[in-house]
Specification:
With 390 residues, the protein is an alpha+beta fold. It is built from 13 helices and 6 strands. The chain has a 6-stranded antiparallel β-sheet with strand order 1-6-2-3-4-5.
Length: 390
C-alpha cells in the first residue's frame, strides 16, 4: 500500500489565488461551507482573483485530477513529467475505464478542449472507485441495494460496480429522486464534499471541533400550542413570557444556534401542533409579533413558531434570497387565492431538496411537506422569507 502524504497541496484551478476565507459569493451558512473551508485550507481548492469562489461552477477532468494527484497520488505526481497536464499523467492509473483516459491516451487535436469540459458522474465514480481500490480502502456495507438506484438499468455495465460501491460507501451519492444520473456533472462545492469524504477515508478523521453545548445548562421551554379557549395572541403572551431570553449565538433553551438544535425545538412545536392541527383565518388566530405588524392565518403561525424557536427578541429579517435558505426560516407564499407558509425543517442543497412544516390558508398543519429547492426559487416573485439567521 502506498503512503498517503500530508499536508495536501493540490490546486483545483490554475488561477490567481484568493484568500482562504471571505469569498463574497460563499455565505457563512453555505451547505458545503465547512468542506470548502477544509479544502481551501489544505490547498486543494482556491478562489478566483476577483474574490469569488464560484461554488456552482462545474468541475473539469483536469481540475478533478489536480485535486486527486496532489492530495492522494503524491508519488505518482512527483514521477510525472512536468508540463501542462502533469496532474493527468499522475492520475492515469485511476482513470482506467473512463472517457478521460481514452481521450488522454489518444491525445487528439480536441484533447485540450476535452479535459477542460465538465467531468460527468460516471467518470468521477470510476475514478474514485479506482483510487479507493488502489489504497485498499474498499468497504462493503448493507446500506444499499441495486433496487435503491432508480436508474440502475440505464447505468452501463462497465460503470455499475464503481457507481454501486461509491454510493454504498457514501463517497458519491445519487439524486433526491433516487437516480444516479451519471451523465450529469458535479460542481466545485460538491467536489469539495467528495474530497472531504475521501480525505476522511484515506487519511482518517480530522479532530472534532469543540462541542459548543458542552457544559451548557439547558433551559426549560414553555409548552407551544393553544390551551383551552386561548387565542393565539394569548398563547404567545404565555409562551413568550415563559421563554428564557437567549444570549448572542444561542437559542432560548441555551443551546447553540445550529440546525440540529433548531430541529430539536421544532419537535417541541410539533408536539403542541401535530399533523392535522387546524389553524384558521379567524381573529382567534391573529398574532402581533414584537416590533412587527399584526399578522393573520398562515403567517401568524409561521412567525409564532419563529418567535418560540429563536426568541421574540431575536432580530427578524425579510428577504427573497432563496440561496441562503436555512432550517427555521419561514417562507410566506402568496399569489391570487393561494396562501401558504413553509417552516423549513431540513435543507439539502447537494440533493436540491427541502423538508418543511406546511400550513395552507384555513388549512391544517402538515409536518411532512418536501420538495426541490429549485421549485422554491421558481416562486420567488410570490414569496417572502422571514429569517432569524442574519
Amino acid at each position: 500500500m502506498k503512503k498517503i502524504f500530508l499536508p495536501l497541496l493540490a490546486l483545483l484551478c490554475l488561477i490567481l489565488p484568493a484568500q482562504a476565507a471571505g469569498f463574497y459569493d460563499l455565505p457563512e451558512d453555505h451547505w458545503a461551507g465547512e468542506e470548502i473551508r477544509l479544502a481551501v485550507d489544505a490547498g486543494v481548492l482556491n478562489g478566483y482573483g476577483d474574490g469569488s469562489f464560484q461554488p456552482a461552477r462545474a468541475v473539469t477532468a483536469a481540475q478533478f485530477c489536480a485535486m486527486l494527484s496532489r492530495s492522494f497520488l503524491k508519488e505518482e505526481y512527483d514521477r510525472a513529467p512536468e508540463g501542462k497536464y502533469r496532474e493527468m499523467d499522475a492520475c492515469l492509473s485511476v482513470l482506467e475505464g473512463t472517457s478521460a483516459e481514452a481521450a488522454y491516451k489518444d491525445r487528439g487535436r480536441h484533447w485540450d478542449r476535452f479535459v477542460n469540459e465538465p467531468l460527468n458522474r460516471y467518470d468521477m465514480a470510476q475514478t474514485i472507485y479506482s483510487l479507493v481500490r488502489e489504497r485498499d480502502a474498499l468497504q462493503e456495507t448493507d446500506r444499499l441495494s441495486t433496487a435503491d438506484i432508480a436508474d440502475w438499468e440505464e447505468i452501463p455495465d462497465g460503470c455499475r460496480k464503481a457507481v454501486f460501491t461509491c454510493w454504498d460507501m457514501g463517497l458519491l451519492q445519487g439524486r433526491s429522486d433516487g437516480r444516479f444520473a451519471g451523465e450529469d456533472h458535479l460542481n466545485r462545492a460538491q467536489a469539495a464534499v467528495i474530497w472531504s469524504r475521501l480525505d476522511t477515508l484515506l487519511n482518517g478523521p480530522r479532530e472534532e471541533p469543540e462541542d459548543p453545548d458542552a457544559g451548557v445548562t439547558v433551559k426549560e421551554m414553555p409548552a407551544f400550542g393553544l390551551q383551552g379557549e386561548e387565542t393565539v395572541q394569548e398563547m404567545m403572551k404565555r409562551v413568550n413570557a415563559g421563554t428564557p431570553r437567549c444570549e448572542e449565538g444561542r437559542l432560548p433553551n441555551g443551546k447553540a444556534r445550529t440546525e440540529e438544535n433548531i430541529q430539536e425545538l421544532l419537535e417541541l412545536v410539533k408536539q403542541g401542533c401535530p399533523n392535522g392541527t387546524v389553524w384558521s383565518g379567524t381573529m382567534r388566530f391573529d398574532y402581533r409579533p414584537s416590533h412587527f405588524s399584526p399578522v393573520k392565518g398562515c403567517l401568524s403561525f409561521g412567525l409564532a413558531v419563529s418567535d418560540f424557536v429563536f426568541g421574540e427578541e431575536a432580530p427578524l429579517t425579510q428577504h427573497q434570497n432563496h440561496r441562503s435558505l436555512s432550517v427555521g426560516d419561514v417562507i410566506h407564499i402568496q399569489g391570487g387565492d393561494v396562501e401558504r407558509v413553509l417552516i423549513l425543517t431540513g435543507v439539502d442543497r447537494e440533493e436540491d431538496s427541502y423538508t418543511a412544516c406546511q400550513l395552507e390558508r384555513n388549512g391544517k398543519v402538515d409536518w411532512d411537506e418536501w420538495g426541490p429547492l429549485s421549485g422554491l426559487v421558481d416562486l420567488r416573485g410570490f414569496t417572502t422569507i422571514y429569517s432569524r439567521w442574519k
